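Q: what sequence does this backbone want?
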């Protein structure tokens, strides 16, 4: 039996073992009858440049980028699309006949995840926790839509830099504070939506959370981009406070679906991708 495939895709990051993207994309390839495979590649910070050279040389047609490479990878690419350039972070790379082109589909993923739960972010007051690669995409995207965005991050200067970058590019004033109980209480007091865009609470450190029921309230929607476990401690605390919760599955599916479209020029089978993720999460 032949093991030949037409095209190889993948995801790079460190760590990489937690990623469920291979399940999602391989299910989509199978559904559409595409002779392709999607693989996980552990790439350390030190080896990032070599990995990109290898991806190009091996003609790996596309790959996703996760922590900690979403910003560092940019200097090794040939081109950025407008959204990735504006955000300053990349989560999707397309090898277009030897040219590595960077995209960012994280922001679109978060908007679609909110919209499918009837929580359109337009004119909403959003509190965003995090200032890394995923948070940058969310912050830039929501700054265009939301009434306000309040960024909290453990390291204040990173939050301040992100706020300044948004103000410089979009002309919108963004509040930024260090992540502490008093600033969290202040930010959440009038907030409509809380988004955790950090890895806090991700397997195996599932006992961690960025906020507890003591600072949350029933009038807020809480979305955690962490999808493994599907119901994080943050979401359990939010439920205990009477808040509406949204898991990270929707964002993962929609950002992945957009990447799939960029790579293959096929309409992605979104529900097939979602079911593949849900089966794997249920098994785990």
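A:
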């Amino acid at each position: 039996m032949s093991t030949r495939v037409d095209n190889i895709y993948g995801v790079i990051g460190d760590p990489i073992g937690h990623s469920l993207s291979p399940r999602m994309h391989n299910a989509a390839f199978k559904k559409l009858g595409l002779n392709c495979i999607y693989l996980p590649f552990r790439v350390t910070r030190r080896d990032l440049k070599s990995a990109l050279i290898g991806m190009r040389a091996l003609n790996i047609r596309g790959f996703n980028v996760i922590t900690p490479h979403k910003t560092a990878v940019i200097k090794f690419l040939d081109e950025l699309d407008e959204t990735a350039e504006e955000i300053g972070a990349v989560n999707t790379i397309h090898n277009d006949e030897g040219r590595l082109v960077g995209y960012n589909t994280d922001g679109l993923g978060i908007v679609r995840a909110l919209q499918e739960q009837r929580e359109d972010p337009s004119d909403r007051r959003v509190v965003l926790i995090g200032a890394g690669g995923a948070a940058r995409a969310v912050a830039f995207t929501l700054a265009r839509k939301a009434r306000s965005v309040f960024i909290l991050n453990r390291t204040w200067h990173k939050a301040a830099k992100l706020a300044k970058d948004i103000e410089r590019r979009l002309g919108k004033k963004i509040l930024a504070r260090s992540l502490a109980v008093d600033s969290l209480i202040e930010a959440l007091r009038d907030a409509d939506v809380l988004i955790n865009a950090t890895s806090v609470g991700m397997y195996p450190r599932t006992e961690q959370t960025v906020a507890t029921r003591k600072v949350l309230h029933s009038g807020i929607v809480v979305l955690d981009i962490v999808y493994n476990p599907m119901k994080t401690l943050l979401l359990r605390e939010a439920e205990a406070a009477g808040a509406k919760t949204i898991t990270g599955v929707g964002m993962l599916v929609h950002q992945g679906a957009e990447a799939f479209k960029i790579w293959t020029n096929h309409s992605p089978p979104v529900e097939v991708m979602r079911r593949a993720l849900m089966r794997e999460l249920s098994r785990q």
